[in-house]
Amino acid sequence: xxxxxxxxxxxxxxxxxxxxxxxxxxxxxxxxxxxxxxxxxxxxxxxxxxxxxxxxxxxxxxxxxxxxxxxxxxxxxxxxxxxxxxxxxxxxxxxxxxxxxxxxxxxxxxxxxxxxxxxxxxxxxxxxxxxxxxxxxxxxxxxxxxxxxxxxxxxxxxxxxxx
Length: 163
Fold this sequence. Notes:
By secondary structure, the chain is mainly beta.
C-alpha cells in the first residue's frame, strides 16, 4: 500500500518544508546535515530554535528512514518508518511525544503484520496480527498494554516481533 511513498515524499516534503518556513519566516530556518557520502542525514525546519513541522531522516545510502512531524521539538502528528527498499515499516500518530491513535506495522515484503490502536503510548483495544504472507493469525485484546484476551488464534505462526 505504501511501497511507492518515498519517491513522492521527497518532492512533497521539500514543498512542505518550504511552506512551513514561509508561514513562520521571521524565526524559521531549513536545517539539514549531510553524511560523508554527501547524502542527507536529516532534514526539516527549525522555528525559534526547535524542530517544527515535518522532519526526515535518511540512511547512509540516502534511502529515506523516517518521516515524522514535530511541534516545538516534541514528536506530534503522523509518523512513518521505512525499510531500506522504501516500503513502509510502520505508520502511526503521536500526540505530544506519545503514540496515540491507529498504528500499523508492515513486514519487509510490504504485507501488514500488525495493526491496532495506542492511547497514551499504551496498546489498547483489539490488535490484529498477520503472518508474513499476510494471513490473519491472531486477534488480541489489550488494556493498558497488557494482553487481556485472545479473541482469535489461527495458530498459523508465532507472533511478529514488536516494533
